[in-house]
Amino acid sequence: CAGVQASSAEQGKIVFKLPKMELGVIAICGCCGKEVAEPYFLKNKYFEADLNGKVLDRRTWDIWPEQKCVRLVKDHGNVVSDYGHSYLTLQLKPG
Question: Is residue 65 packed enough to be buried (19+ CB in 10 Å), middle (13-18) or exposed (0-12)?
C-alpha cells in the first residue's frame, strides 16, 4: 500500500510493474475517505488506467471490496502479457 497523488495531467503518469500473475484481480484504492472510488475513478472522465499498453474499459470496473476501491481487472488470466509480468499505468488525461 502506498500513496500517490496528481492534480493535473502535466504531472505525468505512474507505471507499476506487476509480478507474473496467472490468476487474480487488480484493484486500486483512493485515499482520504470511505466512499471515494466513484468520484475519483468510476466517474472521473479524466482518469485513465491501462494494462500492458491497452486502455481498460471503465464499463467493466466495479467498486470492490469497499467504497474506496475499484476493481480494474476481474480475471487477470485474460490479460497476461507476453513478458510474464504486466505493467499497470494510471494517469490523468488533459481536459
Answer: exposed
- SS3 state at 19: coil
pTM: 0.86
**Calpha distance 90→50 (Å, rounded):** 7
- State how far the Cα of 95 lies from the Cα of 75, in Å rounded to an integer: 31
What is the pairing mode between strands 47-51 and 54-55? antiparallel
User: What backbone torsions phi and psi does residue 48 show, to the nearest 5 degrees?
Assistant: -135, 140
Which of 12-21, 54-63, 82-91 has maximum average pLDDT?
54-63
Task: Read off the C-alpha cell for 44.
Answer: 472521473
Residues 6+ apart with CB under 8 A from 32: none
State whether residue 58 is helix, strand or coil.
helix
